[in-house]
């Protein structure tokens, strides 16, 4: 099915905004979600539920592994044949030596650090499987102690305006 990815990504992030606003306790960590989206509607052939699951995983990680809160920056842009989404946090970051394993099943950075947070270490492995199934790629860029950015690219065929050749149809 063709999905308007601007609308869907906004809808998913709206839910996270609502969750965050519910936590009115001033001692709780504070987050802001920023969105930098292309204005153009991008129609992408994806499964809405599967895409939602991937973004939920990455957003939940961004919150879970940012103990001091901060800004979560999201972007959506198009290249000539892909849409690219990114989600950046200002959290713990991922050590360079672990970057290659982050999408492996059950892999978690520093067992002690992760145990407190809870989780199985499957979120990103499943996300990668889903993104690949949609024909896309997922990758990460991270600096320990500064934060992480997760990128997703999905195949995209730009919508070309049809050129109606009146002369031919009027024949
Ligand atoms: P689950 O998602 O199954 O509940 P999980 O969050 O531990 O458990 P993944 O989402 O697969 O599993 O992430 C794997 C590991 O990668 C995490 O345990 C964490 O160490 C690290 N990680 C993932 N996202 C981030 C992030 N945004 N910042 C810092 N570390 C991260
Ligand atoms: Mg996770």
Automatic annotation (TrEMBL):
What species is this protein from? Limosilactobacillus rudii
**Full protein name:** histidine kinase
Q: What are the subcellular locations of this protein?
A: Cell membrane
Q: Which portion of the entire protein is included?
A: 451 to 621 of 621
What lineage is on file? Bacteria, Bacillati, Bacillota, Bacilli, Lactobacillales
The residues covered by the Histidine kinase domain are 1-158
